[in-house]
Amino acid sequence: MLTNVDKSRASRPLFIAFVLIVVLSIYMVMNLSSQSAQTDIPEQQLAKILSEMEAVGQVFVYFHYEQQKEKSFLAVSQQQNIAGVIIVAQGAQDVHVQQLLKQTVGNVLQIPTHRIQVVAMQHKEEAK
Q1: How far is CA 26 from CA 9, 23, 54, 87, in A?
Q2: Is pLDDT at 101 greater than 90 in this prediction?
Q3: Using CA of residue 37, residue 43, residue 44, residue 46, what is the dihedral sign?
Q4: Angle, to 10 degrees, between the axis of helix 95-109 and the axis of helix 42-51?
Q5: Quick one: pLDDT at residue 27?
Q6: How does DSSP assign the chain, residue by residue?
Q7: Quick check: 84 and 106 in contact, CB under 8 A?
Q8: Phi, psi dihedral angles at 55 (to 5 degrees)
Q9: What is the average pLDDT across 28-48?
């Protein structure tokens, strides 16, 4: 017959295993959430940088991807190449700002400037 002391000793490894599983689960959830918070999508990263340029103002960026399938002996992989970019910027009514944005984005993304469209952001009137 097992005494209370024997029963508590027998259940100790189960309790320790349970606590470890809970702690590891919490760690994994927190790690995944912090990684996703740190990694913005490329469009957001580029928009943040461009909005810091002089006379540009607020910016929104959209990438259009061209998907290509590559077949090899072992596997089929898909690559996404940027086919074009649309930039909507507050300061884009100025032709010099448009050209600056096109040149900068073309150089950074290694795409020709004729694949980059820069348009002025719509002026939104304040609510009265």
Answers
A1: 26, 5, 44, 40
A2: yes
A3: positive
A4: 140
A5: 72
A6: ---HHHHHHHHHHHHHHHHHHHHHHHHHHHHHHHHHHH---HHHHHHHHHHTSTTT-SEEEEEEEEEEEEE-SS-EEEEEEEEEEEEEEGGGGSHHHHHHHHHHHHHHHT--GGGEEEEEPPPPPPP-
A7: no
A8: 70, 10
A9: 71
